[in-house]
Amino acid sequence: MPSIISVTNLSKTYASGFQALKNINLDIREGEIFALLGPNGAGKTTLIGIVCGIVNASTGNIKVDGHDIVTDYRASRSLIGLVPQELTTDAFETVWATASFSRGLFGKRADPAHIEKLLKDLSLWDKRDNMIRTLSGGMKRRVMIAKALSHEPRILFLDEPTAGVDVELRRDMWRLVRSLRESGVTIILTTHYIDEAEEMADRIGVISKGELILVEDKAELMRKLGRKQLTLQLQEKLESIPSALSAYKLELSDNGNELIHTYDAREDRIGIAALLKDLDEAGIRFKDLHTTQSSLEDIFVTLVRDGK
């Protein structure tokens, strides 16, 4: 799959001396949903700001569909829609005027049919004649999305799009993101809600302290770094784990009624079969077992903590 955004050796140091980004190299594939995860202050918004031409890089270069964002700014920026964290709209404009004006800023001809479809998709049609200042926070967030999509961009940046919004809007946005991806739009999402990344993303990048510490297909990331846990509910209470089972690094629950085996997700079933066989030979019987796998949140916390 070809890259639609290429970031090469990108760094950003502010006048204060703070280095917000350190030698970032990243390719975004056309038509994918890419989730960028990281704690507050990690550099997510700075990276988006540079790609969108809002913040100047200190070093490095970026191309958007082959267009350099500095020397060919107009062409590259016209391909991008941005939904920033902050709600920045003219409070005294109507929803319809705001979306229509934003389209005109990119030199696009008026297209009332497109604006109408956009507002209907975002459940804003009934509010089209309302001034922005009269809308709820969730509705204002929808207007920001309408503005970003008004000029029919091929790339959409969503910077913490569901922060502070209700569950219904989050679900609406998930549906909208999926439909946009199906129409060929590339989507870059930053979020604090790791369940969003787990639900939506094709690939995931983790940024910490200005460094991109990992970029991986979501399924591969889960496979490589996810840990599985096998819990055995014992028929009889166990006082201690027999030394013959020490190779498995088992844990005994405080009440002695459960044995817990944590293992790498890549480990095949043969290792589990061997464990169950050795338990049987040690005379340990169990009445039930279940497995769980670490979530993306577990993996993210581990990566950031270890600075991988």
Q: What's a quick, concise take on this entry?
A:
The chain has 308 residues and is of the alpha/beta class.
Describe this structure in words.
By secondary structure, the protein is of the alpha/beta class. The chain folds into two domains: 3-222, Rossmann fold (3-Layer(aba) Sandwich), CATH 3.40.50.300; 227-306, Alpha-Beta Plaits. It is 33% helix and 28% strand. It contains ten helices and 14 strands. It has a six-stranded mixed β-sheet with strand order 6-7-8-3-9-10, sandwiched between helices. A four-stranded antiparallel β-sheet has the order 2-1-4-5. A four-stranded antiparallel β-sheet has the order 12-13-11-14. Strand 7, helix 6 and strand 8 form a beta-alpha-beta unit. The longest helix has 16 residues, at 167-182. The radius of gyration is 25 Å and the shape is elongated. It starts with a strand and ends with a helix.
Which CATH-level-2 architecture of the largest domain? 3-Layer(aba) Sandwich
Q: Any idea what the shape is?
A: elongated
- Taken as a percent bin, the fraction of beta residues is 25-35%
Number of strands: 14
Biggest sheet: strand arrangement: 6-7-8-3-9-10
Q: For this structure, what is the CATH homologous superfamily of the largest domain?
A: P-loop containing nucleotide triphosphate hydrolases
Q: Which structural class matches the secondary elements? A: alpha/beta
Level of helix content?
25-40%
Pick out the low-confidence regions. none
Q: What is the overall pLDDT average?
A: 85
Main sheet record: 6 strands, mixed
Q: How is the topology of this model organized?
A:
Blueprint: E1 3-13, E2 19-29, E3 33-37, H1 44-51, E4 59-64, E5 67-68, H2 73-78, E6 80-83, H3 95-105, H4 112-121, H5 137-149, E7 155-159, H6 167-182, E8 186-190, H7 194-200, E9 203-208, E10 211-217, H8 218-225, E11 227-234, E12 251-252, E13 258-264, H9 269-281, E14 286-293, H10 296-306
